Each structure stands twice: as C-alpha cells, then as structure tokens.
C-alpha cells in the first residue's frame, strides 16, 4: 500500500470550539485518495483526537465503504448493539435508529464490550436542515474536569450496564449478538464476561461490569471511557423514562447503568456528567459529503437533535482489547 510519508499539503482549519477541519479538492477517485493519505490522516487524528475531511463529495454507500476500507486494515462487525442499524455492506452501517428530536449524549462507542473500536469513521451523505452534528469531547479533559470524588469512585469500582432485551425497544437478540440461538448467545456471554438470565417469557437480562477509566493503548494517558451517562435512565427524556418505567418496571428497563458495586446512579450524578461533557464539547455542522474520523478511546462523540433528513454512515475499526477493561482495586494506582 502506498501512503504519504508526510502530512499532505492541505488546509487544516483549527478552531477551539470545533473539531479540526481538513479542506481538500474533490479527488477523482476518493477511495484511492483515502488509501494514499491514510497515514497522514491517522497522524492528524492521533494529534487532535478527531478530524473532519471536507471536499471528498461522498454520496453513495459503495463509494463511502471503499473510502472506509482504504483508511483501515479492516472494518469491525458490530456486536452488542443497543439500537438497530441498517447494514449497507460488511462493516458499514447506518447511524443508530434514534428519535431525531432526542439527542444522543456523549459516549464512547461499544465501551461496554471487551474488544472496542479504536477508530470510528462517519460519512455524511445527506446533511440535515438543522442540528444533527456529531459533536466530540476530549476524554482526558473530561476526566480532569470531573469532581475528584466521583471520578475516583468510578475508577475504583467501574460501572455496571444492565440490559433487558425485548421485541419492542432497542436492538433484538439477533441484531445484538448476530444470532437468536440461545446456546450461541450463552457462549458469547460466557466468553465476554457477561452475566445473563433467561426470563420466563423468553427475554434475556444481562449485566456486565466494565472500567470507567482506561489508559490509551498508544499514549498511556488516562481517559474517561464509558457510556455511563448515555445509557442511564436519567438521560432519557422525562416522558420516555416515565413510559418505560411504567411498562417494564425500574429493573426491567431496556438498558440502564449503575455504579460498579450495583448501587443506583442518581439523577444529580448524570447531570454532572452531561454538563461536564457539554463544557468540553466541540461541534461542527455536517455538510453533505463530509468524512469524520474519531479516536474512540481518547474522544467521546454525540449526535445532536435535528430536523430534516439526515443520512450518516458509520464504521468501526482498529479493534482494541484493553488491558484494563475490567476494573480491579489496583486500577487507580
């Protein structure tokens, strides 16, 4: 594979309130361009945590998938999805199905799995009329800004994700595990440190404990890395939470998060997490044809509420099995 040994002579626009934007002249062959400049683009992501490439004129899933492939050594198959996606080709997905008027708050993709994507790739084929940005926040800065007692507790205990799979809300068993075969699902759970219980009605309840703070595998720096706020009941719109609790009960919510010792996370804690994220958020409205690369461990991302049609494709790459994905008493030393 040929690659540029030096950063390409392109216009990198740096502003403190948004991710870096790299302006390029529309190449005749975007996948070949991506392959050629793969190393240079990765260097920018390593330096800044995220990068928008503007000018590639991405319009079709096949072209976009080829660009994604050119930028990576292979795309990951999503497992343990929390919401349905459309699959365009192996490893290339639609953004998660989520109501347009409800934001998806900051999170690190699949931070509750044992093998996490190190790199997220996004491409905007159709930009919304308003809103809808994929905003980002630096995980190192987030950790430093949180109240010390709170971050130390999460670093010591980790966090607990509870899920209740049903046929009405969220991803189905087959969408999450790639199969609806009980034996295969149980094998996956055993192999990935997930406690599980089959309910009398055939539904599945799971619990998995993960670290809230990890060291970046390349830099060694400590990062706030989790989906504690995003998957917590108090981040839901009040009317949505009320409906889900009424239908499924507090212990049967499709997903929820707790402290690592199993105790509930209060609404005040979730507000602190989300307000701290907001204070460190950088955003840039999507333009049709944009490409975005995000270091998934160093950088959290969100999806803001929007109006109009929004078509964003997503891929995950650079799988990492973090040494500290499971919290231990020594984790904070």
Structure description:
The structure is a single chain. The chain is of the alpha+beta class and 333 residues long. The chain has nine helices and 20 strands. A hairpin with a 7-residue loop joins strand 1 (11-13) and strand 2 (21-23).
Question: What topology emerges from the helices and strands here?
Answer:
Elements: E1 11-13, E2 21-23, H1 30-36, H2 38-48, E3 50-54, H3 61-70, E4 87-89, E5 92-94, E6 104-107, E7 115-126, E8 130-131, E9 136-138, H4 139-145, H5 148-157, E10 159-165, H6 173-177, H7 182-191, E11 195-198, E12 204-210, E13 213-215, E14 222-224, H8 238-248, E15 255-259, H9 267-279, E16 281-282, E17 291-295, E18 299-303, E19 306-307, E20 311-321
Helix pairs in contact: 1-3
Describe the biggest sheet? 8 strands, mixed
Number of domains: 2
The first-to-last residue Cα distance is 41 Å
CATH topology of the largest domain, what is it called? Answer: Double-stranded beta-helix
Beta-strand level of the residues, as a percent range? 25-35%
Short description:
By secondary structure, the chain is α+β, with helices and mostly antiparallel strands.
List keywords for this structure.
28% strand; 333 residues; 4-stranded antiparallel sheet; Double-stranded beta-helix; 25% helix; globular
């Amino acid at each position: 594979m040929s690659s540029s040994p030096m950063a390409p002579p392109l216009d990198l626009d740096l502003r403190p309130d948004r991710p870096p934007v790299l302006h390029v002249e529309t190449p005749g062959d975007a996948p070949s361009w991506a392959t050629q400049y793969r190393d240079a683009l990765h260097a920018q992501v390593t330096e800044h945590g995220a990068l928008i490439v503007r000018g590639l004129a991405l319009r079709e899933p096949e072209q976009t998938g080829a660009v994604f492939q050119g930028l990576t050594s292979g795309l990951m198959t999503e497992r343990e999805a929390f919401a349905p996606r459309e699959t365009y080709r192996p490893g290339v997905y639609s953004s998660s199905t989520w109501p347009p008027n409800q934001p998806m708050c900051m999170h690190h993709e699949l931070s509750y799995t044992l093998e996490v994507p190190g790199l997220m790739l996004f491409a905007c084929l159709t930009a919304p009329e308003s809103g809808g940005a994929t905003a980002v926040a630096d995980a190192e800065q987030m950790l430093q800004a949180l109240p010390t007692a709170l971050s130390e507790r999460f670093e010591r205990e980790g966090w607990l994700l509870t899920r209740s799979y049903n046929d009405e809300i969220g991803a189905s068993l087959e969408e999450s595990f790639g199969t609806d075969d009980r034996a295969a699902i149980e094998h996956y759970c055993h192999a990935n440190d997930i406690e599980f219980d089959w309910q009398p009605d055939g539904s599945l309840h799971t619990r998995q404990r993960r670290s809230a703070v990890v060291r970046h595998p390349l830099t060694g720096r400590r990062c706030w890395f989790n989906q504690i706020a995003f998957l917590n009941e108090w981040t839901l719109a009040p009317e949505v939470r009320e409906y889900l609790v009424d239908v499924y009960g507090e212990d049967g919510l499709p997903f929820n998060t707790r402290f690592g010792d199993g105790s509930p996370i209060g609404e005040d804690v979730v507000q602190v997490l989300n307000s701290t994220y907001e204070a460190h958020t950088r955003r840039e409205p999507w333009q049709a044809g944009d490409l975005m690369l995000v270091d998934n461990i160093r950088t959290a991302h969100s999806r803001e509420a929007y109006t109009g049609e929004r078509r964003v494709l997503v891929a995950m790459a650079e799988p990492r099995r973090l040494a500290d994905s499971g919290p231990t008493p020594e984790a904070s030393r």
